[in-house]
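Researcher: I'd like a candidate sequence for this fold, 468 residues long. If you have to choose between options at a position, lean toward the conservative one.
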């Protein structure tokens, strides 16, 4: 069994709050990790350590900081197999998928190692006797609060961008993947001075204590309710809140598309990682002309996906997902596939296809963090756009269409950070977007995350008067 230790000012120790949480393997319920929860004084000590290390790290040259990230990336790559095993045991992702997502994290660290030293300000056209410039400076201490559904890749993005720009960090990994966070810290920490990276462990209250601490940025990837409470805490302290939160992404299937291909895309979007992806397909608006063939093909896809997906992260999430599905069925939706909790150990849930979903059902209105494809039939592309836009969330959206004008309308009109045409996943490296509405605020990834992690100083330098 793993023991998730906290890491404060260069030293490993067990949290002394007196509370201990145990993570069980969602595949078969065996205990995996013991996590002694950090106490309030330990959260404060981690923030103090990060504050103490901040001036020297800010003075460290960007290329030396980038070198530390490259070394950390190499260490993570070398341990990817071991880390993937821990991740799979804690959150159920198949090991090969876990390894892919760890390699995505390694790539992100290397990307920030390259981008950090080239992150530039600008010089200004001022008085000839002076030098005027705008420079990106580290903000100071960044609290990084991360989720379990892609625990290494998400953490690597925030840690990489924060550290390479000269900030120090207090990281709180998810309470559902603490050993993954502990092992990741063990691979990164040897490459930075004590105090530059600190890790505390615990659940929501520990995250809340960290978010309310005297830090400069709170970067949170996670659920919308947690993001909202962090934003409120930041309003109290003056820290900047950077939020990448939940989504309820629509998929529009237009008239005239190949229903078989569209069903393959829908299944990939809804069932990959057992639906536990922030940009998973959550609600599908399918044109009446292709609806029947599409839902038939989607049902066949669901049966095939049942063989390859892992369980949900735990039974708590499974209960939430199943409650949303059951409520939809009670309110008139039909489950063409899945929709039942299987007998046996673990937190397994089948790929589920619902038809006849109404806009006010939780499966359409809320985030459903599970393998659920909720569908509704529309009469026109116009109706699909209107219903897809009517959501509290605005993370991403996909449109499958052969019409260029529909594609153009989609990316211009849908209130979402990312709009994808004819592919549920994908995007060029270097892209970044603003989540809309309850999905968050700020750039949570990409080169623009370097801007978020820094503050601009305008400097005006004049020579002293002659004769001194
Ligand atoms: P969560 O918000 O419950 O937990 C995420 C982290 O926040 C954990 O470390 C948790 O302990 C902490 N936390 C919880 N309550 C807190 C509070 N009040 N104050 C401070 N910290 C708190 O989310 P989760 O269940 O771990 O992750 C799933 C959610 O994350 C989904 O909603 C998903 O869409 C979202 N997500 C979003 C993105 C994105 O890029 N937009 C990426 C991955 C996951």
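Model: Candidate sequence:
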């Amino acid at each position: 069994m793993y023991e998730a230790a906290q890491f404060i000012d260069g030293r490993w120790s067990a949290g002394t709050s007196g509370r201990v949480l145990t993570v069980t393997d969602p595949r078969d319920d065996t205990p995996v990790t013991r996590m002694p929860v950090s106490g309030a004084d330990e959260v404060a000590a981690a923030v103090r350590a990060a504050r103490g290390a901040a001036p020297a790290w800010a003075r460290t040259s960007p290329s030396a900081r980038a070198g530390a990230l490259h070394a950390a990336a190499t260490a993570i790559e070398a341990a990817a197999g071991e880390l993937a095993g821990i991740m799979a045991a804690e959150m159920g992702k198949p090991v090969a998928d876990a390894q892919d997502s760890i390699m995505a994290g390694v790539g992100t660290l290397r990307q920030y190692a390259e981008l950090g030293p080239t992150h530039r300000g600008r010089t200004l056209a001022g008085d000839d006797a002076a030098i005027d410039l705008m420079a990106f400076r580290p903000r100071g201490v960044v609290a990084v609060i991360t989720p379990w559904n892609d625990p290494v890749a998400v953490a690597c993005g925030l840690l990489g961008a924060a550290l390479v720009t000269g900030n120090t960090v207090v990281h709180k990994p998810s309470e559902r993947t603490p050993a993954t966070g502990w092992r990741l810290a063990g691979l990164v920490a040897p490459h930075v001075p004590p105090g530059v990276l600190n890790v505390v462990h615990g659940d929501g209250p520990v995250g809340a204590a960290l978010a309310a601490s005297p830090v400069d940025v709170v970067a949170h990837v996670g659920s919308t309710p947690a993001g909202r409470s962090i934003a409120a805490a930041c309003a109290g302290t003056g820290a900047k809140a950077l939020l990448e939160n939940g989504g309820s992404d629509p998929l529009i299937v237009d008239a005239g598309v190949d229903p078989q291909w569209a069903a393959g895309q829908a299944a990939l979007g809804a069932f990959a990682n057992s639906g536990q992806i922030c940009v998973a397909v959550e609600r599908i608006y399918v044109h009446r002309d292709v609806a029947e063939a599409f839902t038939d093909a989607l049902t066949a896809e669901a049966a095939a996906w049942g063989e390859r997906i892992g369980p949900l992260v735990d039974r708590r999430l499974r209960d939430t997902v199943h409650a949303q599905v059951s409520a939809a069925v009670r309110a008139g939706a039909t489950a063409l596939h899945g929709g039942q909790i299987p007998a046996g150990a673990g937190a397994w849930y089948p790929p589920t296809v619902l038809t006849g979903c109404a806009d006010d059902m939780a499966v359409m209105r809320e985030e459903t963090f599970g393998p659920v494809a909720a569908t509704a039939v529309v009469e026109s592309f116009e109706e699909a756009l209107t219903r897809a836009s009517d959501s509290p969330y605005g993370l991403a959206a996909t449109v499958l269409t052969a019409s260029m004008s529909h594609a153009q309308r989609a990316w211009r009109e849908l209130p979402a950070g990312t709009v994808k045409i004819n592919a549920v996943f994908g995007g060029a490296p270097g892209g970044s977007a603003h989540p809309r509405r309850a999905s968050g605020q700020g750039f949570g990834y990409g080169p623009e995350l370097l801007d978020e992690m820094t503050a601009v100083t305008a400097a005006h330098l004049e020579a002293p008067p002659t004769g001194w």
